[in-house]
């Protein structure tokens, strides 16, 4: 029984090691998330805070946080992912 468990544990760790080393690092996703988050902050119009981009729209401002944050993240992620693929090959 001990031999079988040793074999299965070795097999499991070898498979997990292969999976871990083929997954992307996620650096591009993290940076795109942070850029989108910053875009949402500077363009939100709430009672407690009005961002500089939101205050430029109309007299009372406009809450564009979700749209600007999404657009910035969508624009930043593909080039960052390309750089991540070139640098780390995964």
UniProtKB/TrEMBL annotation:
Record carries keyword Cytoplasm: no
InterPro entries xref list: Pur-cyt_permease_Fcy2/21/22
GO (cellular component) term, any one: plasma membrane
Keywords: Membrane, Transmembrane, Transmembrane helix, Transport
Stretches that traverse the bilayer: 12-44, 64-83
Coiled coil location: none
UniProt keyword Transmembrane helix, yes or no: yes
GO molecular function, one term: transmembrane transporter activity
Protein name per Swiss-Prot or TrEMBL: Permease for cytosine/purines uracil thiamine allantoin-domain-containing protein
Organism from which the protein derives: Penicillium argentinense
């Amino acid at each position: 029984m001990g031999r079988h468990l040793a074999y299965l544990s070795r097999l499991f760790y070898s498979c997990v090691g292969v999976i871990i080393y083929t997954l992307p690092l996620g650096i591009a996703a993290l940076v795109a998330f942070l850029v989108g988050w910053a875009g949402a902050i500077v363009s939100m119009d709430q009672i407690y805070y009005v961002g500089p981009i939101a205050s430029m729209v109309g007299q009372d401002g406009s809450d564009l946080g979700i749209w600007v944050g999404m657009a910035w993240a969508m624009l930043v992620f593909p080039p960052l992912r390309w750089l991540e693929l070139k640098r780390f090959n995964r």
